[in-house]
Design goal:
201 residues; 70% helix
């Protein structure tokens, strides 16, 4: 009779500590900004000496990379839970609201994922693949509602990140730019439909 698979408790502890370090890193950047992240502060929050952090992450950029990947996974989770109806305008509004809410609720995460605010940092290929997966899922959602024009996804992401950036920068905690989401999606859809009609002619 086969026994239960042997648990690798050491690996489990290692992963728990990595998660604890990342949680602490998010605490630091939410309080002090992305540029304010130091491994010394992170180590102090988790109760270890700064050199010990290097047993889990090779560098501060490796911490940023793990945070970036976490953010991408969280966003993919939001995308997977989006309840699409098949109606183009309804789905565009829902998707735009989901994306902008995701950005606005955590400005530090938004800056890490969508702006180049950390000098010298680029996500690893593995982490960036998660961002590409998210982008492709959005492209597929556009195709489902009949929006296939080249550049449509670029325009949509420019509109939504622009609204998110304005909201975060100029009305934190408010809704000045959030109130424009529905109108922006109406404009986007009308423009895409006009382009499609021109091509048909």
């Amino acid at each position: 009779m086969l026994g239960e698979p042997t648990r690798d408790r050491r690996a489990e502890r290692h992963e728990r500590t990595k998660t604890e370090i990342l949680d602490a890193a998010w605490e630091v950047v939410r309080a002090d900004g992305l540029a304010g992240l130091t491994l010394r502060d992170v180590a102090r929050k988790v109760g270890m000496r700064p050199p010990s952090v290097y047993s889990y992450f090779a560098s501060k950029h490796a911490v940023y990379d793990a945070m970036y990947a976490q953010g991408c996974r969280e966003f993919l989770g939001r995308v997977s839970r989006l309840d699409l109806t098949g109606d183009a305008l309804t789905d565009l509004r829902a998707g735009a609201r989901m994306f902008i809410d995701f950005c606005v609720e955590d400005p530090a995460r938004y800056q890490l994922m969508f702006q180049r605010t950390v000098p010298g940092f680029e996500p690893s290929a593995e982490s960036y693949a998660l961002a590409v997966e998210a982008l492709e899922s959005l492209r597929a959602a556009l195709v489902k509602i009949g929006i296939t024009a080249p550049g449509a996804l670029d325009m949509l992401t420019a509109l939504t990140t622009g609204l998110a950036d304005q909201q975060i920068s100029n009305d934190p905690g408010g809704d000045r730019w959030l109130k424009l989401v529905d109108e922006a999606m109406e404009m986007f859809l009308a423009h895409m439909n006009t382009r499609t009609r021109r091509k048909v002619r």
